[in-house]
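Technical annex B. To support the medicinal chemistry partners, we prepared a structural model of the target in complex with copper (II) ion, based solely on the information shown next.
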Amino acid sequence: MASSSAVLVTLLIASYVAAAAATTFDVGDGHGWDTGVDYTDWTVGKTFAVGDTLVFNYTRKAHTVTEVSQSGYDACAGGNSVSNDDSGATTVTLTTPGVHYFICDVPGHCAGGMKLAVTAAVVGGDVGSTTGSTIPAGDAGGSSLVPATRAVAVGALLIMLIPLF
Ligand SMILES: [Cu+2]
């Protein structure tokens, strides 16, 4: 029994590691963070989750990566920013679920299209918080449910096998 128990624990850990795998996104891909790029268009077809990382590449001091509230995003106003950087290589890890808003705070650039809204879905490693994975994000909610469902299935399997040990 001890060996099958070890196999089960290994499977369980493997499942959680797979569910928690984070993705790194190069914002704008080959275009980087620049004027003349449609960042709403860039997000289409991409699924973002808590733990994922956004990398903004641009010429140092030529642009900023300014995380703002929704109102700051809508108005292209960087005054009450959550964070601000103009180093040329800004890395942002999505640590909380929900929508994260970024603009360039150089005058005219946000209005010219340098604004990005990304919805981070909850990763389904924690069974207790799977209700959060249905945050509306286009098609993001559906695909993020897959690892959550797998975690629940593994948990149910464990409960069924516990009396055997
Ligand atoms: Cu700019």
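Notes passed to the chemistry partners:
The chain has one domain: 2-164.
Residues 58 and 88 are 5 Å apart (CA to CA).
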